[in-house]
Amino acid sequence: MRSEIENVYRVFARYPRPARVEGCRHCVTENDHRDLLGAPLRELDAERLRRFSHKALNTWGDVDDLRHFLPRLLELALRGEGDLHGLFAKLHQGGWTGWPEDERDALRTCLSVWWEDGLTGTERPDAPLDTLAETGDDLAPYLDSWWGRDTPQALWALADLVSEVAHTMPRARDDRVVTWLATTRGWLENAFFEMSEAGQTELAEALSESRQLLDLVTLDEPVPREPEISPEPGADEPPGPGSASSEATGPEATGPPGPAETTG
Where is region (Disordered) located (predicted)? Predict the structure, then answer.
């Protein structure tokens, strides 16, 4: 993500380093000021920026101050050295979707690369959609790029999302996400069988549980047309007994059998 971060530095260089970042004198000490302004932007570490990142836009600094420090805050957070969830919330609070186009584009490019890494990386994603939603940006492009992926990371993220939504009070659920989840029934079912055959037992069990939870989450949702994906070899062959498509034909379907039902 080096080039994307460098572009953020370039675009936001129009916001010069402030001589002093104004803040609540009861909340911000002189030591805080010295820490924040005591080194060039690219040399500030997470500890120096920690208090500003939490207090920005509330009791310390305005939107332009946030924009000046944003490239370094984003760089550290994307490296796991800062609070990415909190930073995305600050972006939302600062109204970044109304900022100049080149600023929005630079940030969205970083978000897209971070999102892609979460779906294709080597580790199980840590609630990436939940974190991304903090930005207040349109989630549709990210959901569209997610649909149908069969990497373990993408499937773990899907299973985690279904579980998270299922354990959220209905009135607190994001309708956009629930509507999208209603399109994932077949994807979950196919993924369950693929992961079972690949020996990914833990993931297959999670997908099986998610498929059953999905009916509760999307109980009142119509069955939407699922996004088209390229057919796999043999996809035109009629489903055999016990296949996902022969056992799950509508909103009343219960999804793939659980592990106990597949033994023996």
Answer: 216-264
The 10s digit of each residue's pLDDT in 150-180 is 999 999 999 999 999 999 998 989 898 999 9
Query: In terms of pTM, does the model score above 0.85?
Result: no
Alpha carbon of 147 to those of 55, 108, 143, 183: distances in Å? 37, 19, 6, 9
Residues ≥6 apart with Cβ < 8 Å to 251: 215, 218, 219, 221, 222, 223
Residue 182: inside a domain = yes
What are the helix (H) ranges across the chain? 2-12, 30-37, 46-55, 63-78, 84-93, 101-120, 128-133, 140-146, 152-166, 175-181, 185-197, 201-217, 244-247, 259-262
First to last CA, the chain: 48
Which amino acid is present at 247?
E
The per-residue pLDDT for range 107-139, each reduced to its tens digit, is 999 999 999 988 987 777 777 898 999 999 999
Q: What is the count of structural domains for the chain?
A: 2
Report the alpha-carbon distance of residue 128 to residue 85 in Å, rounded: 9
Give the residue numbers spanning the domain of 180: 147-231+240-264
